[in-house]
Design brief:
Elements: H1 3-15, H2 18-25, H3 29-43, E1 48-50, E2 55-57, H4 59-85, E3 92-97, H5 99-116, E4 121-126, H6 129-137, E5 143-147, E6 155-170, E7 180-181, E8 190-194, H7 199-207, E9 214-220, H8 223-231, E10 237-240, E11 251-256, E12 261-269, H9 275-285
Parallel strand pairs: 3-4, 3-5, 7-11, 8-9
Antiparallel strand pairs: 1-2, 5-12, 6-10, 6-11, 6-12
Helix pairs in contact: 1-2, 1-4, 2-3
Length: 291
């Protein structure tokens, strides 16, 4: 029985489908089926009950699964400790952020880190929030800049700054002359949002009652696309203050009376072997970058 066997076992138990599990494991379906059958023969038990349309986990397999997860998690921890202890990795750190934050804060944060840790080699990652959390939990990422709340018992975080939202409208929009706006006054406007999976989309929907706003059919993949659409009068959007471009004359950023904001934190695994370094780094980064 090998670690690979355990990973195959967990994949089949998760997907309850040999084809999907094989694709997840990057092997062929016949190879996966053969390996699971070999594992069952080795253990002398059935791990799965199979029929044409369904795969069910046996009672014995259900007891084995948490042990298998724990073993693979411990192995990842050993690899992480060894990697950070080796000369090659000792001065490397992977830092990530989600798309509606990364390009606006990472350049300044990298500058700050390099000033204090000139020999540290940074690997930068940009991904959606759910993917970053998965990378942290799988020990494939050292730290990530995420919007709170991050609800996972295995993760540690330190608040860096509050990032207020503004209402972005075109320069010739009826609301453009206001210094401050109540979101209720903007009800009925075409609300432009990022595509599914972006945390900024979820935050905007929490702040703007979908029953009162008209959610536009357009879905953007970036804040810059949203900015362009707002400039051209397609609709309005919520723009985080780190992304404001005050010199742009074709768009107006209006303060919102309700003062909505997102809380940005540095997040890492509680068991990370370099937690002390990440704590120090959080203090170094703990103020808002200028737009």
């Amino acid at each position: 029985m090998t670690l690979r066997d355990l990973s195959y076992l967990l994949a089949v138990a998760e997907f309850r489908n040999f084809s999907q599990a094989a694709e997840h494991c990057a092997i062929s379906q016949p190879t996966l089926s053969t390996q699971i059958k070999k594992l069952e023969d080795y253990l002398g038990i059935d791990l799965f009950l199979r029929d044409k349309n369904n795969i069910a986990v046996t009672d014995a397999c259900r007891e084995i699964l948490p042990i298998a997860r724990r073993i693979l998690d411990d192995v990842r921890s050993i690899r992480q400790i060894a990697a950070h202890a080796s000369a090659r990795h000792r001065n490397q750190l992977s830092l990530a952020a989600f798309p509606s934050l990364a390009s606006y804060v990472l350049p300044e944060y990298v500058f700050r880190i390099k000033q204090h840790y000139p020999d540290l080699k940074l690997q930068l990652v940009e991904e959606k929030t759910h993917a970053l959390i998965a990378l942290l939990l799988d020990k494939k990422l050292d730290a990530a800049l995420l919007a709170l709340p991050v609800e996972h018992a295995a993760l540690e975080y330190r608040l860096l700054f509050e990032d207020p939202f503004t209402l972005a409208v075109s320069a010739d929009h009826p609301l453009a002359g206001l210094e401050e706006v109540d979101l209720n006054l903007a009800a009925g406007e075409n609300l432009l949002l990022l595509d599914e999976g972006h945390c900024l989309r979820d935050q905007a929907l929490k702040l703007c009652d979908p029953a009162r706003f008209v959610e536009h059919d357009f879905r953007a993949s970036s804040l810059e696309t949203l900015r362009f659409m707002v400039k051209n009068g397609v609709g309005v959007t919520l723009m985080p203050s780190v992304a404001i471009q005050p010199e742009d004359k074709d768009i107006r950023y209006i303060d919102i009376r309700q003062r909505p904001s997102r809380s940005i934190a540095l997040v890492w695994l509680k068991t990370h072997p370099r937690s002390a370094l990440l704590e120090t780094m959080a203090k170094l980064l703990a103020y808002k970058p200028l737009p």
